[in-house]
Amino acid sequence: METKTKKILKVMHVVCWVLFVGVCLKTGALIFSFVVSLTSSAIAAHNLYRGLDLSALYANQLPHYVTLVSLVIAIWGLQAFLVYLVLRIFAKINFMHPFSADIAELVSRISYVALIIGFSTLMVYHYADWINAKLTHLPNLQAYLTGGAEFVLLGMIIFVIAQVFKRGIEIQTENELTV
User: Fold this and answer.
1) DSSP string, 32-93
2) What is the mean pLDDT of each successive set of 10 residues along the chain, which is 179 residues long?
3) pTM value?
4) How far does the chain reach from its first CA to its final CA, in angstroms?
């Protein structure tokens, strides 16, 4: 009979795969439409992805358009990488000895990536706000640049958990040496 924890972890594993595929598709769609907008048709800037209209920025300030869209793509790519790291935990974890150096390293990397996503999102949000105030109106961009503070908080919490994991490894190693 499976324990409740194992069932929850199986469900979370499936949810992580769904999130990973979704974030990768969103990132890929943004990359594709961005490349199309630069290479063949400026009309693609009217609807980069699900109503994201940066055509005014494209028409008036192409360097800012390239910078802003590249940064948004980078943030979504980092989010896909974050979910990938979580999937790596599912692949590497041994439930008999969950405190391992590999898992602690992955948890640490997750905290760093979450912090990078958070601070990057906040910086790009302020950059977009500056563009919106000084250069061109950017409708619907806020939906792509939300959650910066939440990712910073998440990164800080996961960093603490990573330190607990490292301490757990130390205790587990001490217990193995004393037996």
Assistant:
1) HHHHHHHHT-GGGGGGSSTT---HHHHHH-HHHHHHHHHHHHHHHHHHHHHHHHHHHHHHH-
2) 78 93 92 85 74 79 88 93 94 78 90 95 89 78 81 94 86 73
3) 0.85
4) 31
